[in-house]
Amino acid sequence: MHRLFVFAISLALTLLASCTAKDTLPHPDAGPVTVGFRVGGEQTRTQINDDGRSTSWSKDDRIALWARNEASEFTLNAQPFQIYYRGVNGSEAYFSSTLPQAMAEGRYTYYAAYPLPESLDGTKATFTIPSIQDGRVGSGADIMIATPAEASQLGPLENNPDLSLTMQHMLHVLRFYIPEGDNVLGEPVERIVITMPQQIAGRATADITDPDGGMTLAEGGNTVELNLTEPLDASTAAEYAYACAAIFPSTQYSADDVMQVSLYSKNYAATVDDILLAGRTFAAGHVTPVPMKPTQKELRPKLRFRIATNNLGEDIQKITISAPDDTTWDLSVIVPDDYTYTSGGKDITISAPKGSTITSDDYFEFSFYNTADIEALEGKTITVSYESQSAIVTDTVTIPTDASKNNPAAIDLNVPYLYYEDFSSLNSSFEVRTEYTGGGDSGNPDAIELNDYGLQGWSGARIGGKAGVGIRICCRYESGLFIKAIYCGRVDSAPMAAIKNGKSVKVRVLFDYSSAQSHNNGQTTYWAGTTTNTDKLAGNTDIENVIIQETAINRDFDVNETDQSYETRHTNFYDTTCTSATRLSWKVGTNRRGEIGSNGNYWLYIDNIRVQIVK
Q1: Band of the pLDDT at 602, cuts 50, 70, 90?
Q2: Pseudo-torsion of CA 511, 517, 520, 521, nearest 10°?
Q3: What is the average per-residue pLDDT within 527-539?
Q4: How far from 5 is each of 53, 170, 409, CA to CA, in Å?
Q5: Which 3-state string (H, E, C) describes 223-259?
Q6: If we measure between CA atoms, which residue out of 142, 143, 64 comes closest to residue 110?
Q7: Are the C-beta atoms of 527 and 547 separated by less than 8 Å?
Q8: What is the distance of C-alpha 78 from the center of its chain?
Q9: Mapped to the 3 state alphabet, what secondary structure does 124-182 carry?
Q10: Which residue from 350, 353, 266, 346 is spatially nearest to 307, judged by alpha carbons?
Q11: Cα separation of 85 and 79, whole Å?
């Protein structure tokens, strides 16, 4: 049975000044003035309450108001008015707006529209009937146009408004409910998808001076999705729970026309038998109840995430999963009890309860609406950020190519190190004052930035690298008659930017290393530690915070093999005050003693740098 919605709106209009004996109208007072009106009475708005019948104003509602004077000139043109005060039950509200100056005394014809129009062409206002709604016809999903009315100029709210406008609903409302005992899903419905033969959503245009003239629809679509603010479960006839959709009014449907409805809960999907529409007309301002009796359910396809390993060294409090560049998430999220999540289109953040962390025993699921959505992700890369008490680290995960064939498809998450560098990003080989020469190569050359080689934030002096493999730092030794010179090399990493600002943590730095040298005498030596200096530091600059003092590397190889590293060794050091500004530093020298007329190079090779927080 259809129910007509007609709403009365009272507007506060107060004389700004008493009548004057002069024959001419007075000029309005200069300067801004705040005016307003009251909207009162039951069912005056379009956000539908839990009973599926009554409505109330929302705190963000705004109304557009027009005023045409006795000379047929518009002195207000879609002036926005916002909520100033709402009554306890939400059906009464005061709206206000600040005008550049007071309205001139006189009589006006007023027009109003809700929500604010997206565009205007004269008195033709265009709105969007959204294809995605919240089930309460909120957030501007409904459209209302006022019956034109005459009144005096607007005044302050405190002047006891007494003018009434009648608003007419321009859309039809479908009111969906699940009868008791008919929810085969076994859990509340979170999403309803409605498809109809005629267009029901799109860009609707109405004349604000003629609410009885109806609307036209452009860029229309046949489907409306309800992503429910409150999940919908089965209810009794005495107190049905509802979800509502605002649709463009329709003409009479033909004998073969049907409405198709699909339902989705957290874990399941189901359809409703086609609803026959023969002879039906969905008129503006009316409501049609639609009972839903879903048929056999099926599991929704899912991705299941869990932490498999944690190399960060600190427990994780939040995980954010970002969709590929060409994708936005359209799904449900299932998290353990007491966990929370937020969804922002491309990013979904899972948070552990306050005072707790996400462990390998906890998993969460992305529940998709159809298999095609997962198939579209197969083989694509998603970005995962992990937040702990002290740091935020990021890694990527590739969706398995057979994810759609497994339900749920398990995806292991591996929390990365606080910092990791294996030099796979080194895009080309290079040598800068590191190659052996029997002639002279004296001096302490300036350090260079390594950004152009794919090592962002790194710098080094007497530095070389092999594309995709690793780097080496060189110490140059030169001697002559009564002369010995050692020109050290140095490298400094990018800062530990994953550490949160203001945090200082203890870290363990692990790295692989080896050495080579061009001369039998002496050994390669090195120092390691940290610095917060942002400059490019030459080899003759001491490391700010030396943690590994000068250490000689025993050699077990032939000399003059200068194009590769040799036996790989492993070591580590600890820094107790690591911050986001900390850089890792290595300096290379030699313990070779004086020798007349003999030069040489001594190299340190480093690779697989890993930094972990230590608790």
Answers
A1: very high
A2: -70
A3: 97
A4: 10, 10, 48
A5: EEEEEEEEEECCECHHHCCCEEEEECCCCCCCCCCEE
A6: 64
A7: no
A8: 33
A9: EEEEEECCEECCECCCCCCCEEECCEEEECCCCHHHCCCEEEEEEECCEEEEEECECCC
A10: 350
A11: 18
Residue 56 is given by DSSP the state: E
Encoding tokens for residue 75? 């002195």
User: What pLDDT shows up at residue 49?
Assistant: 56
By the 10 Å C-beta count (0-12 exposed, 13-18 middle, 19+ buried), 392 is classed as middle
pTM: 0.78
> Tokens 């076994």 map to which residue?
186
Query: Among all chains, which residue has been given the structure tokens 């600002």?
Result: 501
The reported pLDDT for the residue numbered 137 is 84
What does the block give as tokens for 314?
Answer: 């600190």
Smallest CA-to-CA distance from 412 within 384, 373, 374 is with: 384
Instruction: Please state, rounded to an integer, the average pLDDT across all residues of the chain.
Output: 88
Q: Which residues contact 88 (CB under 8 A, 6 or more apart)?
A: none
What pLDDT, on a 0 to 100 scale, did the predictor assign at position 15?
A: 28
The one-character DSSP state at 461 is E
* 3-class DSSP state of 408: coil
Burial per residue of 522-532, b for 16 or more beta-carbon CB atoms within 10 angstroms, e otherwise = bbbbbbbbbbe
Pairing of strands 392-398, 381-388: antiparallel
Contact 384, 312 (CB under 8 A): no
Give the model confidence (pLDDT) of 100-143 as tens digits: 999 999 999 999 999 999 999 999 999 999 999 999 887 667 89
How far is 354 from 341, CA to CA, in rounded Å?
A: 13
> What is the C-alpha separation between 613 and 615, in angstroms, rounded?
7
The C-alpha atoms of residue 207 and residue 214 are separated, in whole angstroms, by 8
CB 222 within 8 A of CB 195: yes
Instruction: Show Cβ contacts of residue 31 under 8 Å, excluding neighbours closer than 6 positions.
Output: 101
| Other CB atoms within 10 Å distance of the CB of residue 77 | 13
Distance CA 495, CA 580 (A): 6
Handedness of CA 238, 244, 246, 251 (dihedral sign): negative
Cα Rg of the chain, angstroms: 36
The CB density around residue 230, as the number of other CB atoms within 10 Å, is 14
pLDDT in tens, 477-523: 998 766 789 999 999 999 999 999 999 999 999 999 999 888 888 99
User: What end-to-end distance do the CA atoms of the chain give, in Å?
Assistant: 67
> For residue 71, with 0-12 CB atoms within 10 Å meaning exposed, 13-18 middle and 19 or more buried, which class applies?
exposed
For residue 20, the Cα-to-chain-centroid distance in whole angstroms is: 59
Q: What is the dihedral of CA 194, 198, 204, 207, to 10 degrees?
A: -130
Strands 223-232 and 132-133: parallel
What 3-state DSSP class applies to 540? Answer: coil
CB atoms < 10 A from the CB of 365, how many? 20
451 in Cβ contact with 536 (< 8 Å): no
- Positive or negative CA dihedral for 305, 323, 376, 332? positive
Whether 332 contacts 367, CB under 8 Å: yes
Structure tokens at 242: 């509802």
377 burial (CB, 10 Å; 0-12 / 13-18 / 19+) is buried
For the beta carbon of residue 485, count every other beta carbon within 10 angstroms: 14
